[in-house]
Amino acid sequence: MPPKLSVRNLFKVFGPRPGKAIRLAGSGFDKDAIFRETRSVVAVNDISFDLAPGEIFVVMGLSGSGKSTLVRCLNRLVDPSRGSIRVDGTEIADIGREALRQIRLRKISMVFQHFALFPHKTVLENAEYGLKMQGVSPQERRERALQALDAVGLSGWTEALPEALSGGMRQRVGIARALAVNPEVLLMDEPFGALDPLIRAEMQKELLRLRERYNCAIVFISHDLNEALSLGDRIAIMKDGRFVQVGTAHEIVTEPADDYVAAFTRDVDRSRVLPAAVVTADLEPLIAGHDRVGAARERLEEVPHDSLPVVDGTSRFIGLVDAESLADRPARLDVREAIRKEAAAVQSDAPIVEVFGQCAAGHTVPVVSASGRYKGVIDPLQVFAVLGKDQTNGEAEIDGRADDEADPMADETPPPAIAAAGLPARAHA
Ligand SMILES: Nc1ncnc2c1ncn2[C@@H]1O[C@H](COP(=O)(O)OP(=O)(O)OP(=O)(O)O)[C@@H](O)[C@H]1O
Ligand SMILES: [Mg+2]
């Protein structure tokens, strides 16, 4: 499928000498050096990415790293200094006012942290607003706004005024307004940043449902790593206007590109991010229609597991046998007849947290692919090894000295952003 959003070599420079600043950036000078030289800030520095329909792309980074400037470039609230932005195949980086207005009304919606609702309009009128601006007929816009309000769980509130709503509900109205136009691209700049943790978790789940229903590409800015990891199909870590790493939650946590990324992921709950696949060990299964109870009893004696998996002729997992289910059965009986009925498998992409209970109880946990093919069993020792691993990957913590070494252009004193990098969570508390 063609990308909904395609960004190429995007730059935004604030200040008097954008051309020179971009040239210096191209020669490897960093943001601070370029500022000293040109009095211009390279807020977005050579960013490229593509978003597929339905994809959630989370952008994270310290304060000042350029996240807001980047999303604001994407709908031209800020005019980019250079580069290409294609929305659903249409170049929008250099189009005129009227064409841009149409794109904003129909193709790109945006939700901010403090979303402004019209205080004297009802919830329904607020949700209809974008459609009204598009000139959609009253009846159709009412229908579409009602659908969007229903999708965000506000169908009972259509006639209320914003003042009657909680912060979370107001944010839902904002999302309904953004979705009612059925955009190709939804831009969200810390949309849940002002919500309390419970509401926030609820909104995150809701967003995952909404993206399936509306199938738009979503650029989502967040300061919260756990939010990023649970929402992002891919996550970009931004520093000084650049993407220092783009990857899945798994990649970002297990293979941080540098100390800056490692500092972000240090406190993450790995059991919620890493999939069962990384702690899966080989264990040869029994084959239904081939292996018999007697042989199974012997195998069970030899392995350090309380059960053995049984697969069919096409490697599909069909169940477990254990000492109890094998006992008192004729040795020549097919193993299929001794399968424990309640045995369940986990999918290899399920987070490790889902198998903790069974592991701790000492049970054998079979792992299967999405199509049910047997992959192996969870290895409890690997579970503890992976989760207990030093979260900085054994690297030195971020500090001014380490950064100086990595960066020949750096000043004597580290910029404040680097000094703060060791504490990404608290830096934004
Ligand atoms: N209008 C502007 N004029 C000049 N410089 C700007 C302007 N807006 C942003 N900047 C600079 O661009 C850089 C990126 O700022 P931006 O607001 O995009 O960061 P951010 O990652 O969104 O930060 P935060 O997490 O605090 O929201 C910063 O160095 C900032 O000072
Ligand atoms: Mg910002």
Describe the structure.
The protein is an alpha/beta fold. The chain has two domains: 5-270, 3-Layer(aba) Sandwich (Rossmann fold); 276-387, Roll (CBS-domain). Helix content is 38%, strand content 20%. It is built from 19 helices and 17 strands. The protein has helices at residues 18-26, 31-38, 67-74, 97-106, 123-134, 138-151, 167-180, 197-214, 225-231, 249-254, 259-265, 270-273, 293-302, 323-326, 356-360, 380-388, 400-406, 416-420, 424-427; strands spanning 5-14, 41-51, 56-61, 82-87, 90-91, 108-112, 185-189, 217-221, 234-239, 242-247, 280-281, 286-287, 307-311, 317-322, 346-347, 366-368, 374-378. It has a six-stranded mixed beta sheet with strand order 6-7-8-3-9-10, sandwiched between helices. Strand 7, helix 8 and strand 8 (217-221) form a beta-alpha-beta unit. Helix 6 (138-151) crosses helix 7. The longest helix has 18 residues, at 197-214. The protein is globular and about 85 Å long. The protein starts with a strand and ends with a helix. Residues 390-429 have low confidence and may be disordered. The structure holds adenosine-5'-triphosphate and magnesium ion. Magnesium ion is lined by residues 67-68. Residues 67-68 line the site of magnesium ion.
Query: Roughly what is the average pLDDT, rounded to an integer?
Result: 86
Bound molecules: adenosine-5'-triphosphate, magnesium ion
Low-confidence stretches: 390-429
**Assigned CATH class of the largest domain:** Alpha Beta
CATH superfamily of the largest domain: P-loop containing nucleotide triphosphate hydrolases
The helix content is: 25-40%
Radius of gyration: 27 Å
Approximate shape:
globular
User: In what range is the share of β-strand residues?
Assistant: 15-25%
The class by helix and strand makeup works out as alpha/beta
CATH topology of the largest domain: Rossmann fold
Count of DSSP-assigned helices: 19
- The domain tally reads 2
Strand order, main sheet: write it out: 6-7-8-3-9-10
Q: At CATH's second level, what is the architecture of the largest domain? A: 3-Layer(aba) Sandwich
Say how many strands there are: 17
